[in-house]
Structure formats: structure tokens, C-alpha cells
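Researcher: I'm preparing a figure for a lab meeting and need a structural model of a single chain. I don't have an experimental structure, so a prediction will have to do for now. The sequence is pasted below. Please return the structure as C-alpha cells so I can convert it later.
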Amino acid sequence: MDKKRVTKELLDSIKGYQDRVPYQSPFALQPADRKVDAENLKDQVRRSKIVESLEEAIKLSGLKDGMTISFHHHFRNGDKVLPMVMEIIARMGFKDLRVAASSLTSAHECLVDHIKNGVVNRIESSGLRGKLAQAISEGLLEYPAVIRSHGGRARAIVEGDVKIDVAFLGASSSDCMGNSNGVVGKSICGSLGYAKVDAAHAEKVIMITDTLVDYPNYPISIPQTDVDYVVVVDEIGDSSGIMSGATRFTKNPKELLIAKKVLEAMLASGLFVDGFSMQTGSGGASLAVTRFIREELIKRNIKCSYALGGITKAFVDLLEEGLVGKLFDTQSFDLSAAESVGRNEMHQEISADFYANPFNCSPAVDKLDFVVLSALEIDKDFNVNVISGSDGVIRAASGGHSDTAAAAKMSIIVAPLIRGRLSTIIDKVTTVVTPGSTVDVVVTDMGITVNPARPDLKEKFLAAGLDLVEMEDLVAAAKFIVGEPKPIEFTDEVVAVVEYRDGSIIDVIKKVK
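Model: Understood. Here is the structure written out cell by cell.
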């Protein structure tokens, strides 16, 4: 415009507009932290976010010593993003970084070396496994590790308890502007539910892909509005690594027996009616339940309204048979589920925030009728341990365990009475992850146990003729079979803290002597 229609003097005369500025040119007004060349503003409109290398993206991100970086674990044991990024970061000389990952698996053992060489001094995650878990249990970290549930991690990020400076997110496909998903490309992983939260709240987001597609990419899991830089690499992950031992389909007779008892409890609860909802956690027995409900759905001519959480082929089959209305997927547990996210309209990926953040308006877990969850240990107060082994060493993950147990109308914990020569039902669990007050039913190969806080369920189970046992009897039976467990000796050094989903500290893990 040749003549200014609005001047500063005019704005100063308008109530409430004294702090505003008049129009100058199409690109003159920019965020304070964005550097522009006033002479060539239009030429600086970003028409591609692709940078030549990860090293260049890291430089552009402004990463500094002591900052927080994040990763997702949708590739589980097949992840190649974290090791690749950490190798470059170490080579660039960064120190004292905090790694805030959605979870860490055996694919991330390289972090042991990065802790030793000072690149990493803090780790926050839902899970720790393998050599990394062993090293942290032995006190390798300068600061205690932080264990959060999936909902708790989402809450911490959204509320600002965890401020992510740079998020490194692997996606099986991306376009030049960063529109990304996990269902197109050569290395699919399905849902990007954990990455969604990081992308939405991190200061800088680096999208890493091995399949660059034409703009605009579709479907869009993570939009270009959340992405700062795109880096194309040779390989981000091995899709075959998605399915691990914790997400296997069992043929174990004991686990199948437990699954059948779980179905009996569900049928007797009065909640197994048309339109019920459910989630099954990891572990053989809990996953087997998914297959056993199929016959009952057909027999009763009813349908499950939605299934939630980590989705498996068994749930995909129920969806495609019309026995489940919708799948809400935060993490695809196998390749069939990963493929289904891109194929089935009613198979929808959701963020961990949508899934289980207890502080948002209404997470999906709040509508659950049933949740079936596994356990490493359960005590006579119904407290559940899913993070540390009977030797006190960290070996697993919090996951969505405490999130779903707290919210579902009926939370069912499944475990064999004995694993090898170790009891799972004990006087006091090694580490409390899920408080007993949120556990309704425990199912073992020795029978069904109801929390005394749920007399309504006990009454229904007895009326249905279910064979119930008391928790004290299970503890006694386990001791009779394997004897009194030898107490673990710990030092006073805290190697990890366990946050409950609301951010309070529910337990700590100490170094084993």
C-alpha cells in the first residue's frame, strides 16, 4: 500500500490497542526468536524443512549441554533412531543431557556407554530393560531415574513438569514439511501415539524418516505445524522388532487357564453387555483374553464398543469381523496392528494424552469397563509391581498399568501363582507401581480373588458359582510350594523414583547390595 491507513498515533487513540503496531509489510512482523532478512522476507518462507544431516539439524535446534531430549519407542526392540542420534550427539561433544523417552528397550543399551562418558546424566522413561536397567539398578546414573506411566508422562509434558528442548521422532514416512505417519513407508510401526505428545510440546522437533514422500503426506499423524526440521536417513527401525516377548501370543497351558478364568469373571460381573469397552495389557495371559471373548460376543450377539491401548492382531480381527466397533491405538503391538492403522477407518491412533493423562478433561481410560493387566508381583494388599524383579533389579515397564487400573470399572490383574521357583503372590511387593486400592480382581491359576473393597463383585461371582479364593490363602499356598522368599538387601542409595500418574511419588527403587 502506498499510504498507511493505520498509524501508531491512531492505535494509541483506540482503547485497548495502545500496545499494538500498524501493518508494515506481509512478513515484517515475526516471532521474537525468528531471525529474518528484512530485505528478502518473502524468499524466506519455508517451502522445505529438509536438512542435509542429523548433525546439521542438531546444530539448528540449539541443543546445549544440560538440556532435555526425547524419543518414542514405537519400534520397541527394532528402534534404530535413538542409537543413531545418541552416537552423533556424543561425537558433537554434548554433556549432561536428560533423556526423556516414552520407554526404553533392549535396543537402547548404548545409553550405558553414554552415561559412562558423561553425555547423559538423567533418564526418565516408562520402562527400563536389559543391560541399561541393570546398570541403572547398580547406581550408574548421577541422578535417580524417573519411572512414569504413559498417562503420567503425558501429564508431565503437558503440564510442564518435563520441558522437552529437542524431540527426535522417527516416522516411517514424512514429506518435506514434516507431515508424518507410521503407516506408510518401508519401516512402518503403526500408531505414533507417544510421539504426538512430544511433537506438540517440545521446543524443537526433528522428524527422522527413511521414506520421503511427496507433499502432502497422508494420513497425517504428526502435522507440519509441530515439526521444525526433517532429516532423511537410511533406516529408522526394524518393523519385526515391534512384537516382543511381552506381546506374544501364548500357548502356555497355565496362561490359557488364567485367561479362561478371566473370561468367567468378566461374564459374572454384569458388565459384559452390548457396548462394553476393554483393554488388555502385555503378557501372555492378558493378551489371550482377547481371543477368548470372541466366542462369547458371537454367542450373545453383542459387540464391544471400543478397545483401547496397545492394539494386537487379535483386536484387529475382532474389528474386521464387526465384533468391536472401534480401536483406539496408542501403540501398535504387532505388524498386523501397524498395518491396520493405515487400512481401517475405525482403527484410530490416539495420543498418550488422549489415552490416559489424568489431568486433561477426559482421557479414554475413563470410559473403560474392563482392563486385564499382567504383573511381576502382587501382595496381600493387592499392590502390584510391574517394574522390578524379585531380585530388586529393574527389568520392565510401568506402561499404562496404573492409568487403566485407576479408571476402569473392573481392573483384573493376572499372574501365575509361581514363576519357576518364585512366587508372584507375596506379603509385600518389591516396588509399588499400581496401588491395591485400584485393583478389583486378581486371577491366578489357583483361582479368582476379589479385593475386599469390592463386595459387590464378590457377591456376583458367588452367585455365578465361581470358585473364589482368599488372598491370604494364595500367599500361604505360594510359601508352601517354594518356601519363604529371602529378603532382598538394599543400600540407602535411591537409583529410581516411581511417579504415580498424578505426579506424586508412590515408591522408590534402591540399589541392591
